[in-house]
Amino acid sequence: MEKKLSKKALSKSFHNWYYGHLTCFSQEHMQTFGYLCAMLPLVEELYDTEDDKAKAMNTYTAFFNTEPQLGTVVVGMTAGLEEARANGADDVDDETINSLRAGLMGPVAGIGDSLVVGTVIPILLGIAMGMSTGGSPLGAIFYIIVWNLFAYFGMKFMYYKGYQLGGKAVDFLIGAQGEALRESISMLGGIVIGAVSATWVSVTTSLKLFNDAGEPYLVLQDKLNDVFPGLLTAIFIVICWFLMAKKRLSPIKVMLLLVVVAFVGVLVGFFNPGLTY
Amino acid sequence: MEISWLQAILLGVFACLSSMPGMGGSSIGNYTLGRPLVGGLVCGLILGDLQAGILVGCAMQIIYVALVTPGGTVSADVRAVSYIGIPLAMVALKSYGLDAGSAEGSALATSFGAMVGTLGTVLFYGTATINLLWQHIGWKAVENRQYKRLYLIDMGLPWISHLICSFIPTVIMCKLGADVVELIKTALPMDGIAMKTLFTVGSLLPCVGIAILLKQIVKQVTDFIPFLFGFVLAASMGINLVSATVVAALFAIFNYKIKMLSVNKVAVAGDYEEEEEEI
Which of B34, B46, B115, B259 is least enclosed by beta carbons within 10 angstroms? Predict the structure, then answer.
């Protein structure tokens, strides 16, 4: 009789992944143990003998790490493959499963990082911060609800799509279509991040030059804003990008550099946060 | 403002849940409880000043609006930012008599958050290193075919890593914090150079957060255009974020359709060649 994974086993496998993919993280094995826990309920249901179970579990001891939310699709796909293998499919062995996993880790992480972490979360946080202006808890509550519904049902959807469609579920991630998708998401992310920075980041200068009568004839901040509103903020962001992307400085080094810039800027009167008691 | 033992312990538990890698799982832990905005809500509730908590959380959130951890390398630790940084910043604001909603208040919070977050990366590497120990036990379990033990290893034993690297540091820092803040306050007057620098740094740091994200997106100079376009939408045209997202989505769809047009062209040409071969 053909073996079919029960709803219960699939649900347990999904929830093990949903919760446990990163709980036992280390730099060496990353999400490998989360993956083993996700596959265990399936393997236990599909195979009867201890030897078969051991053989199947050993497949998943190979290193795994990707963007965990979108990566759920990979777990779903291997659930489908494992079921096929238990039914005696000839073309599914350790090698097919692991080359699939290894081949998808990169593209899925790339799209997941830019889609989930780089676009969805910043947008939700940007909206939430707007709602929380003045200290209202509304924005935080909004983020908690919307993000968690998105993450839970999104991951569930990815898992079952992966299980049902197998390789077809990720066809759109690789190749030319994936490239087009990635580029478009980057564009979306770029525009939103621009709006987020203009809304939430504000670098201003206090530099003013006074004439003999004691009236300022040059208020640098106003002049800069005449050229391009928020110019100084944009310049600082581009400099930070340049230092990290082109000069390969770590974020921490850039932060330290900014401390120096701030110190010098305060000394020469370029920056003045206007503190008073 | 003093943080009581009970409050410190509660903050410690949230630190365990929210870290990356944390005991809340990444969706609920890292991406929900670990976000400073949500951390601000939690800290505000625990410390009994919801409004100040949210305002401080908001200020810190901007630096970490896009905390991407590619390949497990972190530039800041969310548990430290959200459950050590926010409580300490709240204490500091109270102690300085600053309004959390003012520009100075958020600059102070931002500097605090970045400082604690950067130092906190030690906690991240600590946790991940201790987890190696449990994974070592895990490989033994796999070898001996004791698969049920994997659950304990993946979801139980890491609590010990967090007791050491999340719970204890948070409790100690929150208990000591008030005294340290008091000390800084007497040592560094508000109108001195040091404080001015600290506050200026606070307003500059969000640029780094944005730049980390841009690093992913911008590969060549022309990739800056979408970013600047979004900047113009908000800064010059005063469009809010939700509306800017809709405009951005439209451009993304255009781009995708145009790209797919050329992809499909190639694919159609490819099919044609295949047919010829069959003949």
Answer: B259
Which residue is listed with tokens 């100040």? B52
Q: What does the pLDDT average to over B159-182?
A: 88
d(CA B147, CA A45): 13
- Whether residue A85 is found in the same domain as residue A185: yes
Residue B235's nearest CA partner among A203, A194, A224 is A194
Look at residues A197, A215, A248 and tell me which one is the last residue of a structural domain: A197
Q: Residue A240: inside a domain, yes or no? A: yes
Domain spans of chain B, in order of start: 5-217, 220-279
**Pairing state between β A208-210 and A216-219:** antiparallel
Please tell me which residue of chain A has the smallest CA distance to B235.
A198
Residue A29: give the domain boundaries: 7-197
> For A163-180, what is the mean pLDDT?
75
Same-domain pairing of A85 and A215: no
pLDDT of residue A140: 93
- The CA distance from B207 to the nearest CA of chain A, in Å, is 5
Domain-ending residue, one of A197, A224, A251? A197
Model pLDDT, residue B277: 44
Query: Is B263 close to A180, i.e. CB distance below 8 A?
Result: yes
**Residue contact B25–A23, C-beta within 8 A:** yes
Say if A273 is an interface residue toward chain B (CB within 8 Å).
yes
Instruction: Report yes or no: B16 and B166 within 8 Å, Cβ to Cβ.
Output: yes
- Does residue B54 surpass a pLDDT of 90? yes
Question: For B52-79, what is the mean pLDDT?
Answer: 75
Quick one: A114 and A219 in the same domain?
Answer: no
| Inside any domain, residue A277 | no
Q: Is A254 a member of any domain?
A: yes
pLDDT for B79 equals 86
Give yes or no: residues A213 and A184 share one domain: no
How many domains is chain A partitioned into structurally?
2
First to last CA, chain A: 81
Q: What does the pLDDT look like over A227-249, one tens digit per residue?
A: 889 999 999 999 999 998 888 88
Place of tokens 């075919």: B145
Whether B189 shows a pLDDT value over 60: the answer reads: yes
- When mean pLDDT is compared over A21-35, A109-123, B230-244, the highest value belongs to B230-244
Q: Based on the fold, state whether residues A104 and A160 are members of the same structural domain.
A: yes
- Please tell me the predicted confidence (pLDDT) of residue A276: 54
Pick B190 or A137 by higher pLDDT.
A137
Chain B residue nearest residue A26, CA to CA:
B128
A275 within a domain of the structure (yes/no)? no
**Interchain contact B102–A (C-beta under 8 A):** no
